[in-house]
Write a structure and sequence with these properties.
The chain has 101 residues and is mainly alpha-helical. 45% of the residues lie in helices and 0% in strands.
Length: 101
């Protein structure tokens, strides 16, 4: 099979006949052997239930900034939790036990 490559701006528009012909091909006949299998690392920053339709580089960079900001905020929160002085559990338990029910 010959390999054909295009730059995104050079691709000719797809005709309805070509689209119909592609949609008629059963999944079993499509060769996926050159596509690497996705693993857990590919989805480590995914948001369940969220679908992003990224259309241009501005939106891609904005999404990247938001993901990086969320990751940094989570790191800062975990670092703060790691340095916080633990609350005394025994005193809280004693106060709860002394509370009338």
């Amino acid at each position: 099979m010959a390999t054909v490559s295009y730059n995104l701006g050079e691709m000719p528009p797809m005709s309805e006949e070509r689209r119909a012909a592609l949609m008629a091909i059963p999944d079993e006949e499509i060769d996926f052997s050159e596509i690497p299998e996705a693993d857990e690392l590919d989805f480590r920053y995914s948001i369940p239930g969220a679908i992003f339709n990224v259309l241009n580089s501005q939106e891609r960079s904005d999404l990247g900034r938001r993901l990086l900001a969320a990751k940094n905020a989570e790191r800062a929160r975990l670092a703060q939790l790691a340095t916080e002085k633990p609350r005394p559990i025994a005193r809280a338990t004693a106060q709860f036990a002394a509370t009338p029910r």
